[in-house]
């Protein structure tokens, strides 16, 4: 082994992983979680901790000034983060996947166009936002072609972390006689044409600040359009997005289920064990293990480094399995805890509400089953989303 390789190995072994950076933050995050949930307040102070810990830039390649974390390492960070505060983990997963996707493209597709964005994340620690389901395959909002660019008006829902964001990675639909298309661009959140509406009053994940963002006649220059694609149809970029993003997002729900299991076991151990309790604990751990195995499969699909219709199918199968079994595990955790788990002070009912969010990300149960069925039968999937 050369001296250069030895030095590189030593440095890699001594630099904390993202998960190791999160670990000391967990008691603080856990201590704030109940008040954040009860007040429907965004996790602003927690984001400040993440920034101080160097986690904003964790997914940026080291060559561009970031932490160089892999998708698997970022998933581990988010899973662990959910043990402290579900809302912080879910909101931060949206920034994390918006960094991981261009990082992957820079590394594996030599996409030089993403380099300035990644350097800004590393150097300025800017927060990237995703408008989630409202910018899915069909697109949303309206883009009118004008001289030199487009005028965009839209209402983007489920914009997690909107209050803290610097750039919203979004798109808008351009209507055309030959069919609709979608332009993609970065929207500065401080632009005067952008407003955040205080709409986030929900069953669970109450601290994510996933408010609606209203855009009124914002000008996007032609040079600011990163991509134009056909509306309502899968594009290779969305195959990349789906393959990389959802193992990160669902790492959060896995972490929520694991934390619910910890709370339930702590409560149950304080009581005499009965046969029914043994069975509940066993069923809970079986469901949780199924979720863990499914999530591990999602990460292995990412490691193929070949996004396609097939990897979308495999990741989305994993997404459904993680959701089903994580929800089941938390259901059983609440039952195992008994009446004690019904009290808000124990935190289990909050986790029970938070895990319900796993139902609602794409591909939801119906489209996912149709997509998998079409793949199995050799049918087209381009418009199944």
UniProtKB/TrEMBL annotation:
Residues in Acyl-CoA dehydrogenase C-terminal domain copies: 251-361
UniProt xrefs under Pfam families: Acyl-CoA_dh_2, Acyl-CoA_dh_N
Domain Acyl-CoA dehydrogenase/oxidase N-terminal: 30-117
InterPro entries, per the entry: Acyl-CoA_DH_C, Acyl-CoA_Oxase/DH_mid-dom_sf, AcylCo_DH-like_C, AcylCoA_DH/ox_N, AcylCoA_DH/ox_N_sf, AcylCoA_DH/oxidase_NM_dom_sf
Protein keywords: Oxidoreductase
Top-level taxon of the source organism: Bacteria
Gene Ontology MF annotations: acyl-CoA dehydrogenase activity; flavin adenine dinucleotide binding
Protein name in UniProt: Acyl-CoA dehydrogenase
Species whose genome carries this gene: Oleomonas cavernae
Classification of source organism: Bacteria, Pseudomonadati, Pseudomonadota, Alphaproteobacteria, Acetobacterales
